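Let's study today's protein:

:::
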Amino acid sequence: MINGGNLHAVGMFWLSTMTVDSSYAVHVMPALFLTSFGLGLAFVPLTLTAVPRVAEDRAR
């Protein structure tokens, strides 16, 4: 979960360094993949931690 947050932060930092002359294939796409992968690594464990604690009558 912590690694996912770190990957997301690195990807967002990478995106913040774009310039007008930045290439999509070299600069934007890898940063978006890194950010997406980091979010996937972070949100899946968070969801699996939170969902089982919801009462059955509130799960609908």
Observations:
- The CA atoms of residues 4 and 38 lie 4 Å apart.
